[in-house]
Amino acid sequence: MIRDGFEPNKMYPVIYDLPSPVRHINKKKVIIIIAILIILLIMYFIFKKPTVFINGEKVEKVSYKTEFVDKGITAIYHFKNITNEVIVTNNVNTNNLGEYEIVYKIPYWFGTYTYKRQVKVIDDISPEIQLQGDTEYKVSYKKEYQEPGYAAIDNYDGDITEKVEVNTKDISPSEKEYYYSVSDSNGNKQQVKRKVIFIDDIPPKVEINGEGTIFLNVGDTYEEQGATAIDEKDGELTEKLEITSNVDTNQVGTYVVRYSVPDNSGNIGIADREIVVGGPGRACMKIGTPKTIYLTFDDGPSAHLTPAILDILRENNIKATFFILDYGANTEPLVKQIVEEGHSIGIHSASHDYKVAYANPEAYLSGIDYMKEKIKSSTGVETNLIRFPGGSSNTISRKYCPGVMTALVNETVNRGYRYFDWNVMSGDSGDTQTAEEVYNNVTNGLRDTISNVILMHDFNGNNKTLEALPSIIKYALDNGYTFEKITNKTPMVTQNVQN
Ligand code: ZN
Fold first, then answer.
1. 459 alpha carbon to ligand 1 midpoint, in Å?
2. φ, ψ at 357 (rounded to 5°)
3. Rounded to an integer, what is the distance from CA 198 to the centroid of its chain?
4. Mean pLDDT over all residues of the chain?
5. What is the pLDDT of residue 278?
6. 204 Cα: distance to centroid of ligand 1 (angstroms)
7. Over the stretch 268-295, which tens digit does the pLDDT of each residue have?
8. Spacing, Cα 81 to ligand 1 middle (Å)
9. Å from CA of 99 to ligand 1 middle
10. What are the Cα distances from residue 254, in Å, to 206, 245, 250, 278, 408?
11. How far apart are the CA of 403 and the centre of ligand 1, in A?
């Protein structure tokens, strides 16, 4: 149909009217797609495996023979933590090196999900080196260094001490380092170090000039003779020597003079000299000059014997010592003669009666003071030499005054006297009856190494001593002895006080 006014060649707009069935088909498609998606989603939920979070490493390493603690896993299923439901199979044995697996079985709706973790038991522990002794060792530079010992223990190999290598390195002339190295069978290494320091621990050698022990009498002067010091490393050190001394020659006692010097390493060399200041109660038997004889005659002067003794002494050009008792005008010339002929004179006692002499200390002391004055007026000699009746070791005085000898040995010395006992007995005032016995007693008693103080007696009738004297002198001279008289300088020869 051609409508009114339609012109065939004219362009007219076309109006479409879409058919309704097409719109219907499109709606269906959407529904299908949505349905598929829902199905997929449902299937995803059905078939989805649990999610596993690994604690720690996927491959764990654990040291040999150490405790292995599985860090485990965390399992999540459908937003829910199901770690508690995980079944773990763990056969890791750290006592054996090797590779192990830990199996985690995780049950879920559709079945069981299995997860595995690898565990390697390895030896990654280094051996231990134990040093015996210190890690810093000090040893004398003069001594050879002795390895104090070491041991190497490995957690896997056990004792590998034999594999230890020791190397040294010189740090300085006095320092050396020792390196102890070892490697176990799995290649784990260990090294420890010891330092050895070579020290100078040898003190300087100090040598005393003169005698190591010097015997002096109270009032003598001690003369320092010094010492020398040499150190092996530092050489001559004599000039650095320090001398300390507590010597008091006014007091009886044993003193020490110390010579000391340090070397450059602080080692102190020491030498001591002993100074024995003789006095009461001391058995100074080693005193004096070797092969010296002091002839001493007690109890004189005697009218008949003293002149005869003086004759023999004069003939042999020998000086002796006379410890005399109180004397009268008749024997006073003999006292003078003793002094004039060059002999020593000393005091024995004012009285030889023990009961009188040792009644108390003052009795004896006043007696010797009296004798001292008397001898001085007779001869001009002021003697301070005494000999106690019976000697300082006598015990008979106990009967009259206990302790009197102890008091006397001290007080006489305090007053400036010097008392002399003896160390060779002739026995001529006792049991000895013949000149031969006197001779034998004396010659058998002589000692080469000391001063011999021979006790003899000068009383009338003592002819055995007079007879023995020339042969005693001959024996002594033939055997190289020298005769001396006792003077203020003679070291005191004393016995041990017993009362
Ligand atoms: Zn006597």
1. 9
2. -60, -40
3. 19
4. 90
5. 63
6. 54
7. 999 999 887 765 434 444 456 788 999 9
8. 125
9. 111
10. 21, 11, 12, 8, 20
11. 20
Give distance in angstroms: CA of 398 to centre of ligand 1.
17
Banded model confidence at residue 24, pLDDT cuts 50, 70, 90: low
Angle between helices 435-445 and 463-478 (to 10 degrees): 40
pTM tops 0.90, yes or no: no
Tracing tokens 């008289």 back to the chain, one arrives at 485
Burial of residue 231 (number of CB atoms within 10 Å: 0-12, 13-18, 19+): buried
**How remote is the CA of residue 368 from the centroid of ligand 1, in Å?**
14
Tens-digit pLDDT profile for residues 485-499? 999 888 888 888 888
Judging by DSSP bridges, how do beta strands 80-81 and 73-77 pair with one another? Answer: antiparallel
- Domains, the chain, in order of start with CATH, read 51-122 (2.60.40.10), 128-199 (2.60.40.10), 205-278 (2.60.40.10), 292-484 (3.20.20.370)
Q: What's the pLDDT at 285?
A: 40
Q: How far is the CA of 422 from the centre of ligand 1 (A)?
A: 12
Tell how many helices (H) and how many strands (E) occur in the chain. Answer: 8, 29
- CA of 321 from ligand 1 middle (Å) equals 13
- For residues 417 and 12, the model is more confident at 417
Ligand 1 centroid from CA 389, angstroms: 5
* CA 87 to centroid of ligand 1, rounded, Å: 121
Mean pLDDT across 343-361: 96
Classify 151 as helix, strand or coil. strand
Q: Residue 312 C-alpha to ligand 1 middle, in angstroms?
A: 21
427 φ/ψ sector (left φ>0, alpha ψ -120 to 50, else beta)? left
Centroid of ligand 1 to alpha carbon of 325 (angstroms):
8
Nearest to residue 167, comparing CAs of 132, 140, 194, 128? 194
User: If pLDDT is split at 50, 70 and 90, which confidence band does 211 have?
Assistant: confident
At residue 312, does pLDDT exceed 70?
yes
Please, what is the end-to-end C-alpha distance for the chain in angstroms?
184
Q: Which helix (H) or strand (E) segment is 268 a member of?
A: strand 268-278
The CA distance from 144 to 199, in Å, is 12
Measured at the CA of 156, the angle between CA 150 and CA 159, to 5 degrees, comes to 25
Which two tokens mark 61?
A: 């390493």
Alpha carbon of 439 to ligand 1 centroid (Å): 20
Q: What is the pLDDT of residue 12?
A: 60
Ligand 1 centre and the CA of 326: distance in Å? Answer: 12
